[in-house]
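User: Protein AAR2 homolog, Solanum bulbocastanum:
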Amino acid sequence: MEAEAALELVKHGATLLLLDVPQNTLIGIDTQMFFSGPNFKGVKMIPPGVHFICYSSSNREGNEFSPIVGFFVEASPSEVIVKKWDSKDERFVKLSEEEGERYAQAVKKLEFDRQLGPYALDQYGDWKRLSNFITRSTIESIEPIGGEITIISESEMVGNVHKTAMEKVLAEQLKNSKFSKPDKKSPSKGCYYTSIPRVIKLKGVSGQDLTNMNLDKTHILETILTKQYGGSEDSLLGELQFAFVAFLIGQSLEAFLQWKLLVSLLLGCTEAPLHTRTQLFTKFIKAIYYQLKIGFQKDSKDTSRAGKGATTSLDESLLSADNFLRHLCKDFFSLVLDAPMVDGDLLTWTRKLRELLERTLGWDFQLNSSVDGMHLEEDDEFAPVVEILDDPDH
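Assistant: Predicted structure for Protein AAR2 homolog:
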């Protein structure tokens, strides 16, 4: 990158200034993870918008790590976010407004420029695909008190729910950590996720109708969209992405469980995808496609943390014996790909998701759609609209 262009990015991009960071601390921003060196003081050239920042302290040898702590921010152009390391609590804290402003001005005068690592702009596209529905409103409505998301605040739920590989590893991490008991001084009680009912219980409804409502979760989806999200489909997708980022990058068990609930709700609908909420489901399938694709890539590249922090691969969590995603996807793929008429964009992204799971995890969905043999290039977002017709002559 030319010096002039880099300088413009430094001036107009946001900056994360981290003071007094111990060496070998694990620092992350979005999909980027690295260890702090002796001169590290943060990250510059951060594109304005929503970002997820996380960290994990290490012992002196740099081979044992505390549970990850993460938080979302919405950065404005040229904004300087200042945090200082508290060695007693091993966490980042805010400075006073006056002190923070003094450091911000020093950053804008480029006094810390040599100690700031550049944001890897070649990874920004992946982050946008993971977070394009997350807004300031999403963050403010879900984030815990204090803003920090960590399994440290989730110890009460660990003993009851760890079943999958991901949940077992996160539970074991907390059990063996010096933070195994939640800090009573901390007001954090976890995130404020939307409550997702697993079943419908209504008075005055016949048994058959109630059974149908629970087999097709469209009624639950419509109720939640109206009551919890004010009718906003994008708000629901924002929570889906918030939970996925918090679980994949922030290693939050609570987030993993919420992501499972939302995915199960959406993939459990049969009326909405084909008739009433086609656009929502096209956006949802596209969102989960990139979540899984980027998640698998992150696992294959993320070797620096392997064996050091508490991590498990995404495919490990999805390949567990009680796997929920495989069964739900099989039914959903059959619903869409065997439908006599279906929206072309929904068809395209459904097929791409199926191919991703088959190629990456080796799952075989054994679909019998008449056009199942058609193949689309993985990144071809401009594939033609396809409509399945009964008459083969058409």
